[in-house]
Amino acid sequence: MVCQEELLIEKVCSLYSQISTLESLKPSKNVDTLFTELVLTCMPPSPIDVTNLTKNVQDIRSHLIRLCGEAEGHLESHYSTILGSHKNPLDHLHIFPYYNNYLKLGLLEYTILTQNSIHVPEKIAFIGSGPLPLTSIVLASNHLISTTFHNYDIDSSANSSAQKLVLSDPDLSNRMVFHTSDILDVTKELEDYDVVYLAALVGMNKEEKNRIIDHLAKYMAPGAVLMLRSAHGARAFLYPVVEASDLQGFEVLSVFHPTDEVINSVVIARKYSTTPSTHSLDQGLVGSMILPNKCSDEIQVFIPLNHVEELTVEEQLS
Fold it and tell me: Which Pfam family, just one, is annotated for this protein (predicted)?
């Protein structure tokens, strides 16, 4: 009998072969259909460990993550252009097909952040904000209404498109700052931020991701919080995985693995104020938060996602 894991890998590889031969990854009926099928294939909870895949499947996964990143970039650019054509772009964010996912993810990350931070952050850096900086917009509009968001992207055209979306809003245009920089060239400025967000597709493989994490560990302020997006189970075919062991220089506070249409796992860590002791690393608990480990499957320590959805609906109605 063929096991579920083999069927999953076969399906993902079949979709990869179709996606990799597309002439363009810009939004179209064929592109949308294939990526929707890929996401639906990878969405259900799965015990698969992508580190145990054969080399051939590992290579396919690496290429697939890059293709997903390219397609996501085209999708965001497409909708940023559409939104930017409106007089008040922020009134039309719902036309982006995954906007509700960002509402859920924003509420989830805000809840995680507030349960692990002693004060409302004055300044947040978002690395890899792109042409459609929905995380910053959702957090700034709904949750952190006095915080300034500094959005970093290596692409000047992405920043130009993003800035256009908030210009018509006096409050957000004042609290959303855009920087065109490779984050590895940003040093002293990183000390200014209470919280640094690292987008899922900044660092497309483990080496790139770890180089960025090491850079942040070197230049972020002691005690500052790092929020990262990761992936779990079959969702790791769509996004890079960040392990606790990758976060050298940080105290990992917790990991949350959603099980609904919010694809990314959320990792929260705090830069050590001093060199960590062996005892604190081995303890396994920080307050009431469970530290992630190789055996952990799902750490539902915060709020169930059906509650996230309920709160999001109330926010939309208010």
Answer: NAS
| Structural tokens at position 12 | 């993902």
Please count the structural domains in the chain.
1
For 277, the domain range is 92-317
Asked whether residue 17 is domain-assigned, the answer is no
Residue 316 predicted with pLDDT over 60 = no
Question: Would 39 be classed as within a structural domain?
Answer: no
Environment class of 203 (CB within 10 Å of its CB; exposed 0-12, middle 13-18, buried 19+): buried
- What is the percentage of the chain residues whose pLDDT exceeds 70? 85
132 is a domain residue: yes
Write the pLDDT tens digit of every residue in 12-44: 999 999 999 999 999 999 999 999 999 999 999
Those residues whose C-beta lies under 8 Å from the C-beta of residue 51, and which sit 6 or more positions away, are none
3-state helix, strand, coil split of the chain in percent (to 5) is 50, 15, 35
User: Could you tell me which residues are beta bridge partners of residue 148?
Assistant: 123
Whether the predicted pLDDT of 279 surpasses 60:
no
pTM over 0.90: no
Token output for 37: 């099928």
Residue 145, domain CATH: 3.40.50.150
Token pair 């604190």: residue: 280
